[in-house]
Design brief:
Elements (H helix, E strand, L loop, with lengths): L22 H21 L8 E7 L8 E7 L37 H21 L10 H28 L1 H10 L24 H23 L4 H39 L7 H5 L6 H17 L7 H9 L20 E8 L2 E8 L4 H26 L34 H11 L3 H10 L30 E2 L4
Antiparallel strand pairs: 1-2, 1-5, 3-4
Helix pairs in contact: 1-3, 2-3, 3-4, 3-6, 5-6, 5-8, 5-10, 6-10
The structure holds fe (ii) ion (2 copies).
The site of one fe (ii) ion has 5 residues, from helix 3.
Length: 483
Amino acid sequence: MAGIMDVSYDTQIPNNIGLSSDRRVLKALEKWHPGYIDWWKGSGPDGFLEDLVYLRTAVSVDPKGWAKFDYVKMPDYRWGILLAPQVEGRIIPCGQHLGEPAWQEVPGEYRSLMRRLIVIQGDTEPASVEQQRFLGKTAPSLYDMRNLFQVNVEEGRHLWAMVYLLQKYFGADGREEANELLKRQSGSEEKPRMLGAFNEETPDWLSFFMFTYFTDRDGKMQLEALAQSGFDPLSRTCRFMLTEEAHHMFVGETGVGRTIQRTCEAMNAAGITDPYDIDKIRALGVIDLPTIRKKMNLHYTLSLDLFGREVSTNAANAFNAGIKGRYQEVKIDDDHQLQDATYAVSEFTGGQILVKDVPALTAINMRLRDDYSRDAAGGVKRWNAIIKKHGIDFALELPHEGFHRKIGVFEGAPITPDGLVITSDEWAARRDEWLPSKADGDFIQSLMVAVHGPGEYAGWIAPPRVGIDNKPGDYEYVKLYMA
Ligand SMILES: [Fe+2]
Ligand SMILES: [Fe+2]
């Protein structure tokens, strides 16, 4: 029996929004679709268009059983438009419209602010697919290859989700923005993606795992904040996207964890106890822990920059308007308007790191970033537990907020991962102690060889503890097409 949570297949585009009876939007999406497929073929995973990948596809928005697994050729993936069920009587949870019924249409006065937020979110989705374009060729196993492609097709679906909102609620400007989302390119000189971290390279699999752990987690926090929006269709869209997003961070956390585990196992087997005995460790064909720390430092700090300036009037306006809430807004015990509240924000003045209280309304970005850092620390703790279990004296720790920043109060400040202020010359001289050097990158690159046998793994990474969809260890997650 089909319920409201089920997806309808009566158009080319699977959906639970009654698309077949919304001719205007259906036409706009159908017009956009061929350009999307061209983008996928030209900017999505390089090669592998003919291969059968064991992918999950959303077939419902029921949290208990929303996905089905099957072999699919990626260009045939059914990218759909899925909104979490409408909550009866939902109210605007924050800002000056607090308590009013959630909007089902965009209020005219907030149109451009809302459009901008949707475009910025939308821009990150295809960007990450572009960044990961070449990784399939060096997948350390079919399991990992499948996970990469799963993340890629879902980021593609997230682009559809944002394009739907633009086409449904923003008329001609929305259609224009939807087209632009297919024209910008990650890393392009002329037409780059909108945010810095999404123009960086993802050159190897350790970067991919760090990216899905740290940068997809920024995505999670942004979606959490937009899920609190007074604009109900945006809230419902983001709520369903979050269901998919959890797997992306799982791929990141377990990918880094398996890399660490393999390194520790190899060190133990070779009787190496000093984690800084780098040449000997690398000779074992695994990535030394100090280099893993550098990769973590890089991806974490690039992700912190995504939260924008610590003190921001735009963020205050979005909160005040009820367009974007805080993380778990409805669970916070305060006035939800931040009339007199303050929030502690760091400052960097005269070479000193100071903390001062500012109006909480202006520190919305900072608060979300703090929530993010707490969330990100959980996995780091679990990575350290793996190292400890192998009896190795080494620990990972997220660097100080002032380290290696390009946005906000610490922009360009010469601060170490421990939070010490040093001179710019010293910082430049010591950079390679803290961030991956060219040589580190070359070494990691040398380990990136494709492993295609079912159940086989590259030597630098441990197999997962359980398979996807409870499949056995030697499951053929990708059936490679042999020309
Ligand atoms: Fe996404
Ligand atoms: Fe994601």
